[in-house]
Amino acid sequence: MNDVFLHRTCPACDGQSKVEEVHSIPRAETKTLDELEPYWSGLFKEKLFFSYYRCDVCKILYAPEFFTNDQLGTLYSAMAPNMDVVPLDAIEATQRGYWSAVKGGDFLNGGYLEIGADVGHVVKYAAADGEFDHFWLVEPNRLVHDQLSASAGGKPHDIIADMDDLSQVPDGSVGLAVMVHVLDHLLDPMASLGSIRRKLKPGGRLLIVTHNEASVLRSVMGRRWPPFCLQHPQLYNPDSIAELLRRAGYGSAHVARSTNYFPIGFMIRQAAYTVGLDLGKLPLPKAPLGLKLGNMITIANC
């Protein structure tokens, strides 16, 4: 056991009974922090991650040993922008699909809350199509705050830099809350979900996008599946995320596979990486292709 890192029970049910499911060779928990830093970001390199175990009680897949909050703060401060290896048009197409999953609902009013809003891809659709009276945008990366502010399209908004502080947001005021690839990264997802639920008004919704560890892509790629990485303290499947939300006090949850758009060349490189091939700088097609592969979208009722 490495005393450098955090040791935790199940983040969903606090259970201690678990079974190991997947680990890297070598295991991240056998390394020092300095040794892990070069592996913190980047897709096409040697795999190294904290070993994942399956909770015997709630069946969530999580890493009992992981970085501490302070270590994560240091690592994230040096991380490249989200999806920096994917062209903007592919990102836009993917994010537009997330908004389409909720567009037209009768809960698109009151406040809008997004945790990890990045540059505001979903925000701009909510500002254009929704009837929200205020936008509460949580984004710790201050370098993108100007771009995020512009995405609100002149609507009243506040940008919050602290991911753990929603005190500015009035309780019971939010019609729609959004988390796009954020829940996989949180050390205490139960606390975050509880905090968000208190901000939702009756009939409000929470939209969550996560990786799906029960996907066919994970089965095909095995331990080379990209979400097995140093940024994810836990990963979800349709059953485990529904159980997590139930334990956090939400009502019914609808889970479906989401469509992601990637350049064809990016997908070819991923496929080559799965079988151990490095295509280097070989020129490949850049046209975006929409596929329902390893991600899922969850809409939970307050």
The count of helical stretches stands at 9
State the separation between the terminal residues, measured CA to CA.
40 Å
- Helicity, as a percent range: 25-40%
What proportion of the residues form beta strands (DSSP E)?
Answer: 15-25%
Quick one: overall form?
Answer: globular
Number of strands: 15
User: How many strands, which pairing sense, and closed or not: the largest β-sheet?
Assistant: 7 strands, mixed
Nearest-integer average pLDDT: 89
Low-pLDDT residue spans: none
* Biggest sheet: strand arrangement: 8-7-6-9-10-15-12
- The helix-and-strand class reads alpha/beta
Q: What is the element string, with H for helices and E for strands?
A: EEHEEEHHEHEHEEHEHEHEEHEE
Radius of gyration: 19 Å
Write up what this structure looks like.
With 302 residues, this protein is an alpha/beta fold. The chain contains nine helices and 15 strands. A seven-stranded mixed β-sheet has the order 8-7-6-9-10-15-12, sandwiched between helices. A four-stranded antiparallel β-sheet has the order 2-3-4-11, with no helix packed on it. Strands 1-5 form a two-stranded antiparallel ribbon. Strand 3 (52-55) and strand 4 form a beta hairpin. Helix 3 (88-100) crosses helix 4 (121-129). The protein is globular, with a radius of gyration of 19 Å.
Defining key terms:
single chain; 302 residues; alpha/beta; four-stranded antiparallel beta sheet; 9 helices; 15 strands; 25% strand
Helix-strand blueprint:
Elements: E1 6-7, E2 18-22, H1 33-36, E3 52-55, E4 61-62, E5 65-66, H2 69-77, H3 88-100, E6 109-115, H4 121-129, E7 131-138, H5 145-151, E8 157-160, E9 174-180, H6 189-199, E10 200-211, H7 216-221, E11 234-235, H8 238-247, E12 253-257, E13 260-263, H9 264-274, E14 288-291, E15 295-301
Parallel strand pairs: 6-7, 6-9, 7-8, 9-10
Antiparallel strand pairs: 1-5, 2-3, 3-4, 4-11, 10-15, 12-15, 13-14
